[in-house]
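quick one, 295 residues, struct below
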Amino acid sequence: MNINLFLWLLLISLPEMVFSQSDSFTIQDVKFESQGVTLKGSILTPKKTVAAVVIVHGSDPVKREMEFAKRLAEEGIAVLTYDKRGVGESGGVYAGPSVGTNNIDTANLNLLSEDAGAAVNTFRTYLKDKKTPIGLVGFSQAGWIIPIAAGRNPQIEFMVLFSCPTITTLEQLRFQFYTNGNNDFWENHTESDAREHTKNDPDKYQFVATDPKISLNTLSIPGIWLFGEKDIQVPVKLCMEQLNTLKAQGKPFEYALFPALGHNTVSGSSTAPVDISIQWIKQKALSIRKSKASK
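---
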């Protein structure tokens, strides 16, 4: 048989997603177990890997974040992105609706943090360079999930949080119900007014609140939060104030504020948040590698 024909037949007989459409990285389908169910996703491996991240979802029923993952992979960042529990090809049950007790109650957030931790453990076995720093990158609801996961899994070495709250789940709901999806909210309300409602409004749901600061207080890994000032789901300035308190206590936390953006700081009108996060990941990965080499 002609060798070129043989190779062509071999390629078309293998799983489609094993091979990337890019010259700079490959894509491989993976599955892993977490808390009794099988989760399925994809690993994107650059030709030269400087760091690795697992993507943690927001509250919506989200499949694997391939476009965002490809953006990172093109910059030398290996990525594991998976379909959220109960979504796409992943097993289990998705807890919804997007706003409600069963979506952000303690049990569900803990379960999702276990999924993220299991993804990290699986990802580590696929990385050829075992010294590759690995972290978590997440959106919105991930602000409660990532600190829990990082506190439980010592393999997690850094975290990137887009539009993620540092307030409690109940406080976030109070703020979100107060803004009521009004994109012009900040044109008609003051910061002090919003804070008053966030702290004191009666709760529409009754459940034990999750406070990410409890986990953040136990962490020593670097983290960066990327906020849009016009966010109407997360009270950004209150969260920044809480991060300043943690920074004053010596936590290696940073944040960046984008005045023109709202809650969507990843695929919105500006690429700046993602660009900054990529450079930050590269810098922290280099520092982590140097620290490991000196030990």
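The longest strand covers residues 25-34.
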